[in-house]
Specification:
single chain; mainly alpha; elongated
Length: 332
Amino acid sequence: MGLRPVRREQLLEQLATMLESGLPLAGAWQRAVASGGGSDAMRAVGTRLAKGWSLEDALTRATREGQSPFATWEVAWLAAGERSGTLPATCARLAGHWTAHRETVARLRSGLAYPATLLLILLLVAPVDRLITGGIDSYVSALASLVARTLGLLLLAGFAAGIAGRSPGIRTLVLLGLERLPILGTPWRLAAEIRLTRAMAALWRAGVSLDETWPIAVMASGAPGLEATGTKAAEAIRGGHEPLEALDRLAGRFGREWVAAYATGESTGKLDETLERHAKRRDGDLDRALALLVRTISQAGYVLVAAMLVQKIAGMYAGAMQQVEGALRDIY
């Protein structure tokens, strides 16, 4: 029963503003929920806060009941901010995380809009020979049949993805496979790296301890196959060691530049600033990766459209020649 990203962003921004102005948490929550037409689950959290519960306890109880408005990692993020006495800043940072996430998703969608248009053109071009040989009715019938088959394939793919999504192991394998595709997977990998980097910077800036920051940031990234990395890093830091195993894992996933940025920021005490600079560089890489993806798919689409038109024209020419030969045989 999680909130949509836009509603999360709005709720967290309102909480940050009201808490910074000195309003108690219970009153701030109830006002924020009322302004957005909150659900029963959110009102239940507000009731527990009014009874003196901490935000961590109220959200943890809601999570156990399957009624939490936030994901597990968001609850951990808010709980860490509450324990450290920086809840207003934590709410603001988490809202900023969702703002950046929404912008990244918008960039990914806009990058795929043109390839989707090319797919539509392919569908319209595929039965064009029917338009010439059989008229508009034949073309419409062939186009409807092609669209039905395409939608059937998409529904089948969605059904298979839904089944795979219920199995964490299969879902991780599929996502890792997609991420390793040279052109198609690069934007998704960069987006995950940017989310990880900005989440870690925001948590550190909000005053959350480094051992708590790691697992929350890793979960916030949404990167598949890294679920245990944050926990191992936290265990190493609590034991007084560098999180070398986690850093090696992230180096293999995101490159040594990320590790260098982390090491520099952690050693100088400016982890948030260093990671934010790295995230900005990766923003540029993401834009270039999206441009390459669009250009590659566009070029492939043009080739397919041209090849399909040539094949249709050649087929119609061959059919016309056969009809001429048949007519000549009948005459002679």
